[in-house]
Amino acid sequence: MALRTIESLDGLSGKVVLLRCDLNVPLKDGTITDDGRVRASVPTIRLLLEKGAKVVVMSHLGRPEGAPDPKFSLAPVAVRLGELLGVDVAFSPDTVGESAAGVIESAPTPGVVLLENLRFNAGEASKDAAEREAFAAQLAALGDVVVSDGFGVVHRKQASVYELVQARPSAAGLLIETELDVLDKLTENPERPYTVVLGGSKVSDKLGVIGHLLPRVDALLIGGGMLFTFLAAQGHRVASSLLEADQLETVRGYLAEAAERGVEIVLPTDVVVASGFSADADHVIAAAYAIEDTPFGASGIGLDIGPDTASAFAERVRGSKTVFWNGPMGVFEFPAFAAGTRAVAEALTQVDGLGVVGGGDSAAAIRQLGFSDEQFGHVSTGGGASLEFLEGKRLPGLEVLGWES
C-alpha cells in the first residue's frame, strides 16, 4: 500500500484538520534560536488553508516528563509561526478538553490554532498502549481528519504519531513526502560515487547505519567524537578523547567487512587536540596516530578533525554524486573547533548531485555556522528518523500512513 497523501482526503473545506508537526525547536530565554523546523511546517499548513480547512497544529517540545513546565511551552512557536504564515495563530494553553475545544471553535475557518506541548500530557509518550490510546481519543475529539507531518518523530510510537492517525481519516503532509522522496534516492539506486559522512559523539549511535550502508556506499568518512573509537580499534592511543571501549571489536569487524567489500572507510590523518573541553582551551594539530605526543600528553582531548583531514574530506564530498552527512566533525559550538564541520558543510553545498544534511546536530551546525538551508540539496528535519530509515528499521509513524519499507 502506498503512502496516503493529502490529495487522498476528500473535501477539506470547513473541516478541522489535526496537523502533527515537529516544532521541537531550541529555545534560549524564551527565544527560538533555530526556527528550521517551524519553517519546514509552513508549506503543509498553507496547502491546508488553501483547501479551506481550520488547521489545529500540534507538537512536542523538549522532555517535560508528562506534566506542564513553562520552559517547554510552545507559546513562542505560535508567535513565530504566525510571522512566517502572515496570519494570526491562536494559541491554546491546553492540549485537550473543553478549553482547547473552545479555542479551536472560536478560531476562523480557514485559520490556524497551535495547541500547547503534547508532552505536558503523560499519555503522549507513555509506553502503555492503553494510555496512549486514551490520549489519542481526546485529541481525535478536537478534529475531523489527521495530517501527520512531523518527520522527526515518525520513528516513535507515540499517541499523536501512531494511535491518533488510526483514529481519524489520515494522510501524510508535504514534509514527510519530501523527506521520503530524498531518502528513497539515498537507498534505491543512488548516483555514484555515493559517500556518507558520519560524525557526532558516539559510535554506538551509528553502528546500525554503518552496518546497513556498507553494502550500499562507496565510501564512509568518519569524524566527530566517534573517530577515536575507530582509531583505537586500529591500535592507536587516543589520550583522553572520547572512546567507547566496548565497541572496539564491533568497529574492527566493520573495518574488516569494508575491506572485503571494497568500501573505503576514511579516517582522519590529523586531529585538533586540546588541553581540555572548553572554548578557550589551548590546542595543537597532531597526527592521528600520535595524539598522545602533544604537550598535553595523555590528558589531551581531540575536539575536531585536523586541517589536512578537513581538506581531504571536502575533496571527497565535492567529487561525489550522492552525499549523506549526519553528525558534526568536531565541537562546532566552540569556534576554535568548528573548522572541520565548516569544511564539510561548504563542500556539501558544491556537490554536483544530491547533498543531504541528515538533520539533528548537523542541521543545527550549518545554521550556526552561517549557511542557509537553500544552499544544500536537502536539510532533513529528523536526524534520528533519517538514521533509522537508513538502517532499514520499521518506522511506526510511517506504517500507519500506508508506507511500506
Automatic annotation (TrEMBL):
GO molecular function, one term: kinase activity
Origin: domain of life: Bacteria
Ligand binding (ATP): 206, 302, 333, 359-362
Localization per Swiss-Prot or TrEMBL: Cytoplasm
Entry annotated with the keyword Metal-binding: no
Pathway: Carbohydrate degradation; glycolysis; pyruvate from D-glyceraldehyde 3-phosphate: step 2/5
Pfam family membership, one: PGK
Gene3D superfamilies: Phosphoglycerate kinase, N-terminal domain
Residues that coordinate or bind substrate: 22-24, 37, 60-63, 119, 156
EC number: 2.7.2.3
Enzyme class: transferase
Keyword Transferase among record annotations: yes
InterPro entries the UniProt entry points to: Phosphoglycerate_kinase, Phosphoglycerate_kinase_CS, Phosphoglycerate_kinase_N, Phosphoglycerate_kinase_sf
Swiss-Prot/TrEMBL catalytic activity: (2R)-3-phosphoglycerate + ATP = (2R)-3-phospho-glyceroyl phosphate + ADP
Keywords recorded for this protein, A-Z: ATP-binding, Cytoplasm, Glycolysis, Kinase, Nucleotide-binding, Transferase
Primary site of residence: cytoplasm
Oligomeric form and interacting partners: Monomer.
Family recorded in the similarity comment: Belongs to the phosphoglycerate kinase family.
PANTHER family assigned to the protein according to its UniProt record, in alphabetical order: PHOSPHOGLYCERATE KINASE, PHOSPHOGLYCERATE KINASE 1, CHLOROPLASTIC-RELATED
Protein name, per record: Phosphoglycerate kinase
The gene coding this protein: pgk
